[in-house]
Amino acid sequence: MEKAARTRGRRPPSLRRGTVPVKGPGRVFHVAIASSPRELDEARRLDNLVFGPAVGVKVDELSEIGRNGYLLLLRGVEGDLQGQSQMLVRPIGSHPDLASDEVYCYATALRPELIGSGLGRVLAMAQEVCARWHRRRRMTLAVRPENGPSIRMRFALGFRIVGYDPSRYAHAEGPERGGRVIMEKVLDRPGRSHETWQLVKALESGTATLVRSRELLEQVAQDRRMLAIPTHYIPEVHYHSYDPVVRELVAALCRYPYEGIGWLRPEEHHLPFPDGDIHLLVFQPRTQEPPATIKAETQRQEA
Ligand SMILES: CC(C)(COP(=O)(O)OP(=O)(O)OC[C@H]1O[C@@H](n2cnc3c(N)ncnc32)[C@H](O)[C@@H]1OP(=O)(O)O)[C@@H](O)C(=O)NCCC(=O)NCCS
User: Fold this and answer.
1) What is the pLDDT of residue 145?
2) Whose CA is closest to 150, among 23, 236, 238, 230?
3) Which domains, ranges and CATH numbers included, belong to the chain?
4) Ligand 1 proximal residues by C-beta, below 6 Å
5) 169 or 156, greater pLDDT
6) Of 95, 129, 147, 289, whose CA is between 20 and 30 Å from 165?
7) Count helices and strands in the chain by DSSP H and E runs
8) pTM above 0.70?
């Protein structure tokens, strides 16, 4: 209790009341900042329900996140927990590499029946309000390259894919299944969100090349042309699934100065693929420098 009060005392005045106001679909949402053990446990249960106990956040980790960042709760009118999101403004044991101008968005998860409702965006916007209060310049996060809803939501908010970290969550999922793309939003210089039609037009006109092999990827990347990588999307398990081809191609591409800017669904790209529900991840030559921590990680991987 005393600890929670001390933590709140350091927060900027408008967040001290314990809520973050966010304009969401149709109304203003008051996203709560969790502090009590009961709230922490509620968030942990939802996180573990969605991500599973191996990858899901642990109770000690959650209290550490709460002391060094924000644990955000979105409730329905009945007070029921609809979603939760975690964010760091200072480094913690399980995430020691946080630059002084950066916040790190840990997991964001809605109740499974609310996925696709647009409420995830409310939590993501609450994270941004907190990041701005702390005058941080960059928001970063790690996500599976197969996770369409999460990646699309972040693209729409001005994030880009700026790297691939093969070791992220490898301790929990094994070296062959771990790995996440790193997304970033620069708050004072956000990337332009690309409209779906612009990306489709780039594909149709040949400005963007469809890349399915490592050889073609190397050629297109050396010519610094826009490209699209197919990914096998599995709706119900997109936040657990693993597509080795997209992993290999994205990891290879992130060694070049490239950035991910868009995600296209089959009904948008209209390309015929014989093997199921194929979505496209669209990349372009990078327009901004990647963060120092990601650059260092990429150099470590290459060494
Ligand atoms: C990621 C998450 C928080 C996003 O919140 P959300 O409210 O579902 O997001 P949105 O409804 O705004 O959807 C995001 C985008 O994905 C699209 N999308 C949603 N469901 C989809 C589906 N089943 N198939 C394809 N695209 C889908 C939406 O159309 C939207 O894109 P658009 O705005 O361009 O149309 C939520 O989906 C979630 O909790 N997922 C499970 C946990 C997870 O994966 N967390 C992220 C990893 S940290």
Assistant:
1) 92
2) 238
3) 2-136 (3.40.630.30), 196-302 (no CATH)
4) 50, 107-110, 115-121, 143, 147-150, 152-153, 156, 235, 239, 265
5) 156
6) 129
7) 12, 12
8) yes
